[in-house]
Amino acid sequence: MCRLFGMNAGEHRARATFWLLDAPDSLAAQSHREPDGTGLGWFDEHGVARRSRQPIAAYADRRFSREARELSSSTFIAHIRFASTGALEVRNTHPFEQRGRLFAHNGVVQDLPRLEQRLGDELALVQGDTDSERLFALITKETAARDGDVEAGIEAACRWVAETLPLLAINLVLTTEHDLWALRYPDVHDLFMLDREPGDPLDHRSSLGSRVNSDHDGQLVVIASEQLDDDAWRPLLPGELVHCGRDLRVSSRVILPDPPAHQLTLADLDPHARASQAHGQT
C-alpha cells in the first residue's frame, strides 16, 4: 500500500527529517515494504512548488536522504509508492504538481476513460498513466470552477468519483505553500493526524536503537498513513476532510458520509493492484 505524508509548519520553515528518516516508523523504513517509487514535495523561499521524484525505494535513494536532511519548507508532502496503475517511471511517481499545488494519493479508482471524459480539456494537465494524477486533475478543474476554493474543489471532485466510478479508496494529501488538506475515504485504509503543540519534544528511540530528535520545537501538524512514532496520533474518520492553514488551526468535517456507490474489494483488482493495496488494509 502506498504511504502518504504531509506536514504544515505554518508561518515558519521547518525540516521534515525526523518523520522522513529518523522516526521509529519513518517513510524510509516504510519504503522497505513499498519499493516502487519515492517522491518529496516542498515550497522554496519564493513560494514555488518543487519536487524530487525517483522510481526507486526511499531507502536506496541517496537524493531522498540528502534532501530530507537539508530541505526546509512551510509545508511538505511525501509519498512512498507501491504501484497499482502506471509503469515505474518518474512521470507516474507522486507527488504531482498542478497550478502551484502538490498532491499524493493512495487507493484505486477505475473506469479511467469515464474520468478522462469528465476532465475534458483539463486532461492536458495529466502527464502520466495513473488514476491518482487524473483524480488530481479533476480536483484542479473543480477548484477552478469554484474560484480557487480548494476545499470545495476536493469535495466536488471526490463526491463525483464516489457516486460514479468504481473505487477502492481515495485517501489523499494536497498542499499549497501554507495550506494542507487530507481526506480519508472510505474506511479501507487508515490515515492519521498529529497536531503537535509548541515545545512538545520529538525525542524517541529509532528503529536502530539510537535516540533521535527534531530541531524544530514549534507547532506542527502532520498527516501520515501510519503512526510514525508513539505520539498521540488521531485516526481520521471515513469521509473526513481535514484542513490546516498557515495559522495551524485545524478544521475538519465529514464530506462523504455514505459508502461509494461502486465499492471495490481486493478480489475485484488484478493481482498487481491487489498486492499494492493489501498491506495495511483496515
List the helices and strands and how they pair.
Layout: E1 3-8, H1 17-22, H2 27-30, E2 37-43, E3 49-54, H3 62-70, E4 75-81, E5 96-98, E6 101-109, H4 112-119, H5 131-145, H6 150-164, E7 167-175, E8 180-184, E9 192-196, E10 203-205, E11 211-213, E12 220-224, E13 234-235, E14 240-244, E15 250-254, H7 271-278
Antiparallel strand pairs: 1-4, 1-12, 2-3, 2-4, 5-6, 6-7, 7-8, 8-14, 9-12, 9-13, 10-11, 14-15
Return the structural class.
alpha+beta
Strand tally: 15
Q: Mean pLDDT score, rounded?
A: 85
Q: What is Rg?
A: 17 Å
CATH class category label: Alpha Beta
Number of helices: 7
- Would you identify the CATH architecture? 4-Layer Sandwich
Whole-number tally of structural domains? 1
Strand content: 25-35%
Largest sheet: 7 strands, antiparallel
Which H/E pattern describes the elements?
A: EHHEEHEEEHHHEEEEEEEEEH
The shape is globular
Uncertain stretches of 5 or more adjacent residues: 203-214
